[in-house]
Amino acid sequence: MTERTLVLVKPDGVQRQLTGRILARFEERGLKIVGLKLVKVDRDLAERHYAVHKGKPFFEGLVAFITSSPLVAIALEGPSAIGMVRTMVGATKPTEAAPGTIRGDLAVEMGQNLIHASDGAETAVAELALWFRADELVDYEREIDRWVIGPKG
């Protein structure tokens, strides 16, 4: 089933100049970019993104970090994209992330774990709507999809 999901290359990933490398991993896997933008996050957007953590001791730290520098918001599409992206990203704690995952290869500590990825179908829908207007997501065909995804039907 074709899904869409949100990925954020967090401020540490942008500052470390890893955006291109991270984006390339998703493209190489066959996922399609349907939205992409550099965002300077304000407090309101940060609080809405991390609303599930409001009231927790680490909430203010999350908000401060995500607003500290620009990030790159990416909307990806593909078969089972949500699970595929989560697997590629790796465990939240880089010390527990498997080698070969983005965090396992590139991150050192949880506070600077480079990337966010939607954790389920409902979350992906809500997060995509938070970070992208409908007219910022682009539907298009790729010739390569017949070699990446295979025939439909």
The radius of gyration over CA amounts to: 15 Å
CATH 4th-level superfamily of one domain: Nucleoside diphosphate kinase-like domain
Contiguous runs where pLDDT drops below 50 for at least 5 residues = none
Architecture (CATH level 2) name of one domain = 2-Layer Sandwich
Major sheet size, sense and barrel closure:
4 strands, antiparallel
* Residues in helices, as a percent range: 25-40%
Please, could you describe this protein's structure?
The structure is a single chain. The mean pLDDT is about 95. The protein starts with a strand and ends in a 5-residue tail after the last helix. It has a domain at about 1-35 and about 75-140: Alpha-Beta Plaits, CATH 3.30.70. The chain contains 8 helices and 4 strands, in the order βααβααβααβαα. The longest helix is centred in the first third of the chain and has 11 residues, at about 20-30. With about 150 residues, it is α+β, with helices and mostly antiparallel strands. It has helices spanning about 10-15, 20-30, 45-50, 60-65, 80-90, 100-105, 120-130, 145-150; strands at about 1-10, 30-40, 70-80, 115. It has a 4-stranded antiparallel sheet, with helices on both faces. The chain is globular.
Short description:
The protein has 153 residues and is of the alpha+beta class. The protein is built from eight helices and four strands; from the N terminus they run βααβααβααβαα.
Q: Topology, pairings included?
A:
Elements: E1 2-9, H1 11-15, H2 19-29, E2 32-39, H3 43-49, H4 59-66, E3 71-79, H5 81-89, H6 102-106, E4 115-117, H7 121-131, H8 145-148
Antiparallel strand pairs: 1-3, 1-4, 2-3
